[in-house]
Amino acid sequence: MTNWSLKKANEVYKVNQWGLGYFAINESGNVCVRPSADSEHKVDLKKLVDELRQRKINVPVLIRFMDILRDRIAQISTAFKNAIVENEYQGQYYPLFPIKVNQERDVVSSMLEYGKEFGLGLEAGSKAELLIVLALTLDPDTPIVCNGYKDREFVQLVGMAHKMGKKIFPVIENYDELETFIAHYKETGIMPRLGMRIKLSTKGVGKWAKTGGDASKFGLRIPEVLKAVERLREENLLDSLNLLHFHIGSQITKIKVVKQAIVETLRVFAEIVRLGAKLEYLDIGGGLGVDYDGSSQETYSTINYTLQEYASDIVYRIQQICQEKQIAVPNIFSESGRFLAAHYSMLITNVPTVSSIGPCGLEFPHPDKGYGPVKEMYDLLEGLTPANSQESFHDAVQYRSEALSLFNLGYLTLPERAYMEELYWRIMRKVYEQAQIQGLLSPEMEDLEQELSDTYFANFSLFQSLPDSWAIDQIFPIIPIHRLNEEPDRIATVVDLTCDSDGVIDDYIGEDGPRHCVPLHSVHNGNNYYIGIFMIGAYQETLGELHNLFGDTHAVQIRIQGENQYKIESLIKGDTIHQVLTYVSFNRKELLHKMREQIEQAVDERKLKLDESAQMMDLYEEGLYGYTYFEE
Ligand SMILES: *Cc1c(COP(=O)(O)O)cnc(C)c1O
Asked: Which residues form the active site (predicted)?
């Protein structure tokens, strides 16, 4: 309790690193949010959550800070603009938002609104996404790039959109699509500006490494590139080929890979130009990473470069190769979804229950009679010193496993086994405390730390709100949003409300790199303990699913207007139970009818009184209209 400070809180939770100035800890020990790193305005998150509760919007609630979206667009556009000025680059840069990252209506339309001054465009990867993009792009100068599989209907839609005057670039992802476009052209005379995605031999790094390389799912191999160019020439359509595209995967952790990919692509670009195509655009795909864990370690969750470095390296290399080959530089599109969307939203939830696995304070008699295994364990605890703590640890593990065998053979009573286990956990706690004092961080001790950690049952579903934590062990910053002026006195593992044993968060940010548990505060009876899960704006919001029928959480959209002043722009109530039931084809009326029949039967059989039957019916019906999460 002695040397805790807000500075220490920042070191433990690394808010200043991953928060990028959008998030910080204020003097009251609460997390606050700024619209941009240099803004004077900030909103206290704890205060906001309290005020939402007064509006009867309880946790879990997804909070979307739209100002952060605006700032992200400005950041990336400025970085490329700087690089363009510095290199006297003759082309333009346009950020594209790949909407698969977050298709929420307000996100897509805000991107368009805020991005207007930067020429922001949209990228669609499926027919459904294309339909969104076509309707929303009112400005004919807004670039549209279409990736993903394209059937005839897709090609027709794109052709018509082109005829309507939209700046639309369908990207040929596999060779057959080219034939579909040519056939469509022969029928209708319509040929939009085409893009072509190439397979690079450069592979990505980290989780998405397989997106690049020869075996990647999308893109034309080099022989196919040549075949496509010749095929277009044969049809007198080579002028339609306007854009070259590559995407080597998401969250690229190393700048080296970006540089390699650019060089390889530019060589292909220059060759296609030499073969006679009018390439005017280069689409460098997504992959610009964000720092989720604030460490500079070799993890998927962080990156070894800055935004400016990324933009500068790209612009510089394109410029160099174009100069060398004496060709005009292309305009640059980038499809950085994660970068644009990750920071703007967070989930705030509470912790209704905590359970601990360590010693439970069981009282037992002093085992000084006889030499039973209980006595051995007892003596181990009594004789534990800093010098023998490692040895005692190993002995205790062995005694415990022996005790279990004895119990299974019928030689140990239940009380004896209970005492053994209680003693075991007391020893473990002491050993762990010793290791901490001595700064001993062996893998054994790390495992022990996780074993001894408390289980914090948080009011949310990992599968609905944090799918990448479950699917790909992605780290997200998870920190209390208040009480940061108090030293966290517990070590915790956060689990969700689903019955799935996979509903556990396994990785957290740690002071010295990722770790398997997180320091949190004791939860005082009756008081809410709020934790925030940050940086979930990219992929999490729409990837989530209905495991255990936990539905969408409430979502509020906030615009920061001044010091603790904000406007709620929209407030969407989360799914009710009867809504999620319809997703799995249950019908409210039918359920009510079936329940009613059973309740009437129970009344008939005198198991329920009449008023009880009414109560049961009310409870059931209220349940159907309630939130899928834990309600107070
Ligand atoms: C997913 C995807 C993106 C977005 O990648 P981020 O890593 O989020 O920037 C961009 N382009 C294509 C083709 C994609 O498939």
From this structure: 499
> Ligand 1 center to residue 161 CA distance, Å?
23
Pocket test for ligand 1, best of 145, 335, 541 (most atoms within 8 A of CB): 335
What is the distance in A from the centroid of ligand 1 to the CA of 210? 13
pLDDT band at 299 (very low <50, low <70, confident <90, very high): low
208 CA: nearest ligand 1 atom: 7
Helix axes 307-325, 66-86, angle to 10 degrees: 40
Q: Which residues contact 10 (CB under 8 A, 6 or more apart)?
A: 16, 25
pLDDT for 27-82, tens place per residue?
Answer: 999 999 999 999 999 999 999 999 999 999 999 999 999 999 999 999 999 999 99
- Residues identified as active-site: 499
3-class DSSP string for 417-463: HHHHHHHHHHHHHHHHHHHHHCCCCCHHHHHHHHHHCEEEECCCCHH
Of 31, 48, 44, the closest CA to residue 477 belongs to 31
Condensed to tens digits (0 to 9), the pLDDT of residues 473-517 reads 899 999 999 999 999 999 999 999 988 888 999 899 988 888 899
Rounded-to-integer distance, Cα 118 and Cα 425, Å: 60
Q: Chain-centre distance of CA 395, in angstroms? A: 42
Judging by DSSP bridges, how do beta strands 478-480 and 530-533 pair with one another?
antiparallel
pTM over 0.85: yes
- The token duo for 611 is 């008023």
Torsion angle defined by CA atoms of residues 269, 271, 277 and 280, in that order, rounded to the nearest 10 degrees: 30
